[in-house]
Write a structure and sequence with these properties.
Layout lengths: L1 E2 L2 H11 L6 E7 L3 E7 L6 E8 L5 H14 L2 E8 L7 H16 L7 E6 L3 H9 L6 H28 L3 H5 L1
Parallel strand pairs: 1-6, 2-5, 5-6
Antiparallel strand pairs: 2-3, 3-4
Helix pairs in contact: 1-5, 4-5
Length: 173
């Protein structure tokens, strides 16, 4: 796995396959679960995909799941929610960094690029939308993780699409 700057991720996808760039997976990484979202083929709209159970003992299995998702959805990159600016919440930063490092060490996603995107308020936004539905707590947690990944990926796509198609090199350096 290779880290790239946010705008470079979409820019590279357009350069590689200008007619049909690869799609993106959005990740909301938590202590117990990783919420997943996927972009449409035009990289304009994010949709919920699934939630993976996260344990220290199953990182190899998760890497295999990601390999399968990359192949079946023609994924060209991962957009990982990152807790930028969260003062006093070092645990969230460590959780995301550790997950990416463990995934990288499996060497199953060597050709996959990833970037970080600000996840602040993604879960809170989804919580407020789900509250009126009065879901069972387990169902609510699953929906929260999936849709937080959607918010992260959609915010990335909205931002990146505004800039990449016009001036990719100038914006990302």
């Amino acid at each position: 796995m290779k880290y790239v700057k946010p705008l470079r991720l979409l820019g590279d996808a357009w350069k590689t396959k200008p007619s049909v760039p690869g799609r993106f997976l959005g990740l909301d990484v938590g202590d117990k679960y990783v919420g997943l979202a996927v972009s449409d083929p035009s990289n304009m709209i994010a949709s919920p995909l699934s939630v993976l159970l996260r344990k220290k003992t199953n990182i190899d299995l998760m890497a295999t799941d990601f390999q399968n998702l990359v192949k079946s959805f023609s994924v060209s990159g991962l957009v990982v929610g990152y807790p930028f600016g969260k003062l006093n919440n070092v645990e969230d930063v460590v959780t995301v960094n550790l997950f990416i490092e463990e995934l990288r060490k499996t060497e199953k996603l060597m050709d996959v690029k990833y970037t970080y995107w600000d996840e602040r308020l993604s879960s809170k936004t989804v919580e407020l939308m789900l509250k009126p539905l009065k879901l069972h707590p387990v169902q609510e947690k699953t929906m929260l993780d999936k849709f937080a990944a959607v918010v992260i990926l959609q915010e990335y796509l909205d931002y990146a699409n505004r800039y990449v198609k016009t001036e990719p090199e100038e914006r990302d350096g």
